[in-house]
């Protein structure tokens, strides 16, 4: 049986518990052992790069980041691959979102490398939660006037957690021009159509000469689907959304609130998982 040489994990609802925490000392010990065995650990998230790095601040060791749903891949502090939205496609998507009933009241966030621009205002009830995920969240009067490379459009509605009907409508409207996936917590992400976490993971697999058979992955929602199918051991979390569980037959024994990912890494290191 081929040995695992790469482990990729989503963050929210997967690596972190519902209090947005993880057992740091336990993971640090695991990362040290993974490094000793030359097994790579990749953080694969829909989040902004700065937020991903902030979550793992203080952890010492080799961490690689596939951020923005795969639109930005950073290895050893260097950008390996990036795929911002094409300006014309971004403008068309924003025009649709801001003029279509059901979407016009949505909260939109445009994510850049170091900043994020939004139609929200600091007095909004969900501003604090959004500011947790985005560094330098900045209100702007006109999103179409933002003139910086945008990796994704983050869409959510105040008080709405099931956005499946909206996601289906938007996917149909965008067609093949742009990709749209549900990202958990009642959100949707719009990226370039080829951009997925699996796409980002592929860049690293090629760089490190690691195959799908040598890859293990963890996720909990639709934006993890492609990544789970791109690893021999692709695990949906016990607490995962139906979309992630449909992507794989493998389910973690424990959920995110009981360190489900760390439990599986421990099992791998102990030789219980091949």
Automatic annotation (TrEMBL):
Coiled-coil annotated spans: none
GO cellular component, one term: cytosol
Pfam family, one: Hydrolase_3
EC assignment: 3.1.3.-
Keywords, alphabetical: Hydrolase
Record-linked InterPro entries: Cof, HAD-like_sf, HAD-SF_hydro_IIB, HAD_sf
GO molecular function: magnesium ion binding; phosphatase activity
Top-rank lineage group of the source organism: Bacteria
Top class in the EC scheme: hydrolase
Annotated NCBIfam families: Cof-subfamily (TIGR00099), HAD-SF-IIB (TIGR01484)
The protein's name: Cof-type HAD-IIB family hydrolase
Taxonomic classification: Bacteria, Bacillati, Bacillota, Bacilli, Lactobacillales
